[in-house]
Amino acid sequence: MSKLIRLSKRVIDALPPQPTDAKARESEYSDTEVSGLKLLINKQGRKFFYLRYRHAGRQRSMKLGNYGELDVADARLLALKHRAQLSNGIDPQETILESGMTFRRFIDDHYLPHAYASKRSANSDDSKFKTHLFEMFGARPLASISRQEIQRYHDELISRRAPATANRHLALLKRSFNLAILWGYLDTNPATGIRMHTENNQSQRFLSIDEAKRLWTVLSTEQNQIAAKAIKLMLLTGVRREEALKARWEDIDQERLLWNLPITKSGRQRFVMLSEPALAVINELPGTNCGPYLFPGAKPGKPLNNARKCFQRALKVAGLVHLRIHDLRHTFASLAINNGASLYEVQHLLGHASNKTTQRYAHLASENLRVASNRVSDLVTATT
């Protein structure tokens, strides 16, 4: 028998699993705010939102989504959307089945507009769909894509790409299917339960001091000096590429030698310490006459889009291989640690939200640790 309660996160989190000796597989709770909205809890403690309704004289039900993937507010909105269809004589389940919604149509018409309105990385999502995922799933009806197919794609991708890349694709698929459930186009997520591949983030490319000097010298003669100075600033500060290219003049405090990053990858504001050489690079730039950005692009009022071509030319002249722009950030950390900086200091210099991320550089600090250990030994064994 269904129990009547006002659903909320606090209430749902406190609800126990269905007793193992109970005859019914799930316990059921009815929301007091939206008619027909139910929460079911099975004997393993998993919780699901359902909508129960009557259409054409028949009692029907449809799963809205798993609790955790769907919160109470979203479940109510989805239930109300389906009840509005019912009031017009439309069965929401039949609408979903008959819609013929393909994966590509869902992504183009629904997911990407939402992503561009809510995510800073929407461009990256768009690229993954167009370059990889549409080829595999684009023409398929959304509801026909199976878990086995996604698992096969995830496994096959690591033969061509790094495990981290395959994991980003899987995470994007999971998010897309969760939203399809939320918006009423799917009943279950076929990507649920597929495990991420193990990632090895310890293998990083660092420039030696000699290599960094060679790159610096070549950048000084590069034809595109705007892009070259952006690369120089990344090397001198360890900031990410997007942080550098989107830097504005209003964010630079010349007196305090600080660079304000209003929004970083973690979504937090942070300040970058500017050395005198870094400030000198900034002062060599065109200035506010060319727009609000430190590194102006070809279009008026827009920042430099990418420094990759300049970077590749400089690497070729400097005789450097197997290097990405992001490796300049690793190089900054490497040189800092090898010249006495602690992991704590590097964490804050790079703006890592967690020290776990900085631990990838721990092996570089071994010589510093050895020096510290020798100092302690010298103190203990010193004779007066």
TrEMBL record:
Matching CDD domains: INT_Rci_Hp1_C
UniProt KW DNA-binding keyword: yes
Entry keywords, A to Z: DNA integration, DNA recombination, DNA-binding
SUPFAM superfamilies: DNA breaking-rejoining enzymes
Positions of the Tyr recombinase domain: 202-374
Keyword match S-adenosyl-L-methionine: no
Gene3D superfamilies membership: 1.10.150.130, Integrase, DNA-binding domain, Intergrase catalytic core
Ranges of residues in domain Core-binding (CB): 101-181
Membership in a protein family: Belongs to the 'phage' integrase family.
Protein name: Tyrosine-type recombinase/integrase
Species of provenance: Pseudomonas hormoni
